[in-house]
Amino acid sequence: MTIATHAASAPGEPAAGAASSRSGGSGAAVGREGGRAQGVDARDASRVARPPLWLVVLASLAALAASIPLVYLVVRGGESGLDRIVETLSRGRVLEYAANSLGLAAATTATALVLGTAVAFTLSRLRVPFPRLWLLASALPLAVPSFLAGYGWLVLAPGIDGFVPSWLLLSAVTMPYVALPVAAALRGASGDLEGVARTLGRGPFPAFLVATWPQVRPAAIAGGLLVALYALSDFGLVAMMRFPTLTWGINAAYSASFDRAQAAILALLLVVLALLVVLGERTARGRVPRAAARAVAPRTIGRGMLLSLLPVVAAAPVVGVAIPLLGLATRLVQAETLRELDVPRLLAAVGSTVGVALAAAALAVVLALPIAALAARFRGRLVSAIESVGFLGHALPGIVVGLSLVFFSLAVLPALYQSVVVLVFAYAVLFMPKAIGTMRSGLADVPVSLVAVARTLGDSPLRAWWRVTVPLALPSVGIGALLVAIATMKELPATLLLRPTGIQTLATELWNRTVVFEFGAAAPYAAVLVLIAAVPAMVLSGIRSTAKEEL
């Protein structure tokens, strides 16, 4: 899922007077400003022009495909009737599930917001040793699925369960969703107002709250949205910690009864909660007007304060990565683990994981490309509606998508039930927003003037697009595909519901062994999953620094 940050304009842009003095006169400066204004007007004109019909049709078809799980789930739930829905939702157990889900999401989001903002401020505004290394360490929890972190902790402390460990581990693995975009926003935020606040007698923290926090609030709240949706949709960790939430109830209702109506109703309740979170985020985020920013040099602080802040930065990597990997390592080196290792089964799981990840990445890119191209170049209510539907995967938990596609395939396409096709489609729906976000940014950065020049040289629209737009936007397409592949490798609940019989991924093999407390047999699958997911994550960090913010 992509985090949209409102970065300020580039620091150090020369004022008009300075430009005039360097160019030898005000006329040159006015000419440049006029050219810049014409360029902006040209770009705006391209964005308000009428989009071609073929692009609207392709984008609409992609959005329609993304909406299939939710639409069918609504139809399925409506078939139960109002009385059945009210009766199901009024059960004490269901209310407990909903309260647990909301409480866990609220606690996790608040913790991630506070901790992530503190980490971002420490790494962006204070002079710390090896800042790039600390930033990389703060992003490491993104490569560790929550259920794998839970596995590592259960190896070392088998008796832990309930709300507290679920809250702490979810906060650790989701903290980077806040820290990375806030750090990026701080790098682009103006330091002028904060300096004025300091001269008026405010301390560092009050000055930050008054002057800088409003500039980075949209990034922080957007990251908080991802954290809240992650906590609402998590299944593997809460199941390992035996903390009953809505995802637990949905899985139990689906698995234990031939009457799947209750599972559909609970899934709709979870979707409603997720949509309310999305609407709340849009209301709270607000907008910050773009203005010229003056870069803020990191401040040097005393060694005592530095030693007190670094544990804050290290908290999430230690809790979410180091300790789980330590538990994993203790199991890997045991002789009984090596004796129980089934190499052919492990290799088969690796092949299945990589295969479905590549297929999901390709399908997500195909579905996301027309939506991204439409949103990058054009405006309007229709464009906004299509883009919003494409981002529907933000608010659809994996277990909801999996359950709805089970219903859909059985009722409409029974030949595809429990097939790889449905599984890959579920991944594409869930993670298409990651591809849309990165591809939209890449396509929007391609100057319209370059395409116009290619057209004036005799190229057709398609040839001009292939020669100009594709080479410049290709890196963003690759980033989107890698983001989808990483998310697919770590996905668990939809995979448990939709995987074909006889096919296991590394995530499902790890889950199957952990739920029966075979921690030694699960260790090799956990280790290989970490290694495989780390490869595209390392590629992303080398391609573009903001890739980690979108992971």
Automatic annotation (TrEMBL):
Residues annotated as transmembrane: 53-75, 97-121, 133-154, 166-186, 219-241, 261-280, 301-326, 346-376, 388-409, 415-432, 464-489, 522-543
GO biological process: transmembrane transport
Residue ranges, annotated region (Disordered): 1-43
Membrane topology recorded in Swiss-Prot or TrEMBL: Multi-pass membrane protein
Record key words, sorted: Cell inner membrane, Cell membrane, Membrane, Transmembrane, Transmembrane helix, Transport
Cellular localization per UniProt: Cell inner membrane; Cell membrane
Family matches, as InterPro entries: MetI-like (IPR000515), MetI-like_sf (IPR035906)
Main location: membrane
Residues in ABC transmembrane type-1 domain copies: 98-279, 350-540
Gene Ontology CC entries for this record: plasma membrane
UniProt biased composition (Low complexity): 7-23
UniProt family annotation: Belongs to the binding-protein-dependent transport system permease family.
Protein name: Iron(III) transport system permease protein
Organism name: Microcella alkalica
